[in-house]
Amino acid sequence: MWNVDQSYIDGRFVPTVGEEVVDIVSPATEEVIGRARLADREDARRAIAAAKQAQPGFGKTTKAERIALLERLQVSMLAHADEIRDATIQEYGGPVARSQWVANFAAQCFGDAARLLPTYAFERPAGLDGVSTLLMEPVGVSGLFAPWNATAGTMASKLSAAIAAGCASVIKPSELSPLQAEVFTRALHQADLPPGIVNVITGRGIDAGAELGTHPDVAKLSFTGSTPTGKLIARAAVDTMKRVSLALTGKSASLVLDDADLSSAIPLAIGTAFMNSGQACVAGTRLLVPRARMGEAIERVKAAVEALRVGDPADPATMIGPMVGRAQFDRIQHFIRRGIEQGATLIAGGEGRPQGLSRGWFVRPTVFADVRNDMDIAREEIFGPVLSIIAVDSEDEAVAIANDSPYGLQAYVFSTDSFRATRVAARLQAGTVLINRVAPDLLAPFGGVKQSGQGREFGIAGLEAFLEPKTVTRG
Ligand code: NAD
Fold it and tell me: What is the pLDDT of residues 347-366, one digit of tens each?
């Protein structure tokens, strides 16, 4: 049994003072595998005070010192990658391959941030008359919020940018991932960081999270989570005029152009729709297919989805693990029922658990054809393994349907003509467009347009999200 009852404050593990204790439940077996004491507002205040004390000194560190810290963090994360992977499997139900990817990605974030620093100019000329200098200064104490579907990855991507910029931080992982947060924090502790520059408090959003989101000593919030919570965060932050970056909900479209090679495009489209068991903000859950090629596409999708192995996340053959918990399981069942009620055609999966799995929050990978873009399953983020196929009659219609969404996180284009695909990408309202691939470029900016967020993470844009420009002009 796991027992998570400490917060990480000022370089030490200290007893969490919050009084609420929750069970950690395996989503694969529904058995209790541990208990976690959740941090409250007082824990948050202590963590913020530690970060505030560390900030002035940390903000003055040199590039070389920050690079050394980031490299130590990369080494430490790599050394703990197996533990991070195992915690992701046990607590979240992430399949082995995905959980291993997340653990390696966490280490890579620190290495990538270290690679950015040598050539980044924190001081540079400004204006055109030679009288001004621009100083890119750390914005200050930062509150970093992580969702439950990408705990180690989000903690690492935000923390690496904050450290590169010279910002002390308080990380608030989701109350649904105390075990993953604890294992990650033990790894970062081994990197022997100066006290106070990283603090971790796992608690509820309305409690520890709200304190972090409104405290006057916090200058910057970097939030990853749902759009409704992102709006609450942004509203609450305005009173103290915090700088806010929001990485939010997605409802991504995958556009198969009429010249696409379906033998390569459909496996990639299935890969993005069902990645992370469908619990992914960037999942391509609307598949737009030319009507003339629909028969062939459906045949390929159906075969590929029926071959997806659902089950024990610790089994390397498993491709779809359980949903994180009962609420998520119920949400997916609701949307599958809505798809049927609103007239979409079920071509794979459906309601209930997969055959042979009577325990655990497993759902059937599900595909609907004949979906219209005004149906709930096409408009709302389901956050589970449910794919909607929409027929289109032209490239223009595909672009119009892809853009007809309140969200705009990541889109995918499949075509054998790279010039044409690039032209289509230019017309899509999305923070990122991937052409004939589903793996992102982790040193390029990532973020959403419209209600998928504001600001960018990763690469130089991600670093600058933790910097404040100051102009010095000489007379
Ligand atoms: P969520 O919005 O419920 O919670 C995210 C974080 O905010 C958690 O740490 C939570 O405890 C905290 N929180 C909740 N209410 C709060 C409040 N009032 N004040 C302060 N903090 C609060 O999201 P979730 O359910 O954990 O994650 C799933 C969502 O995250 C999906 O919508 C998904 O698309 C999105 N997501 C987006 C990205 C991206 O990069 N755009 C990446 C992963 C997940």
Answer: 999 999 999 999 999 999 99
The tens digit of pLDDT for each residue in 226-258 reads 999 999 999 999 999 999 999 999 999 999 999
- Looking at the structure, do residues 264 and 408 belong to the same domain, yes or no? yes
Is 217 domain-assigned? yes
- In a shared domain, residues 181 and 295: no
Q: Using the mean position of ligand 1's atoms as its centre, give its distance from the Cα of residue 431 in Å.
A: 18
The answer to whether residue 215 is domain-embedded is: yes
Pocket around ligand 1 at a 6 A CB cut-off: 145-150, 172, 174-175, 204-206, 209-210, 213, 224-226, 229, 232-233, 247-250, 281, 381, 383, 409, 448, 453
At 194, which CATH number?
Answer: 3.40.605.10
Q: What pLDDT, on a 0 to 100 scale, did the predictor assign at position 369? A: 98
Q: For residue 391, what pLDDT is reported? A: 98
Cα pseudo-dihedral 230, 231, 236, 241, rounded to 10: 80
Say whether both 52 and 30 belong to one domain.
yes
Mean pLDDT of the chain: 98
Count of Cβ atoms closer than 10 Å to residue 393 Cβ = 10
Domain identity same for 182 and 288: no
Between helices 418-427 and 395-403, what is the axis angle to 10°?
40
Total domains in the chain come to: 2
Nearest CA owner, ligand 1 atom 23? 225
Atom of ligand 1 lying closest to residue 452 CA: 41
Q: Give yes or no: residues 191 and 274 share one domain.
A: no
Ligand 1 midpoint to CA 425 (Å): 28
Determine the residue type at 124.
Answer: R
Closest C-alpha to ligand 1, atom 40: 247
| Tokens coding 230 | 């992102």
> 146: CA distance to ligand 1 center in Å?
7
| Model pLDDT, residue 26 | 98
Ligand 1 centroid, distance to 173 Cα (angstroms): 9
pLDDT band, very low/low/confident/very high, at 20 (cuts 50, 70, 90)? very high
Q: Tens digits of per-residue pLDDT, 420-429?
A: 999 999 999 9
**Would 310 be classed as within a structural domain?**
yes
- Separation of alpha carbons 475 and 473, rounded Å: 7
Range of the domain at 215: 2-248+452-473
- Best of 102, 224, 252 to mutate for ligand 1, by most ligand atoms within 8 A of CB? 224
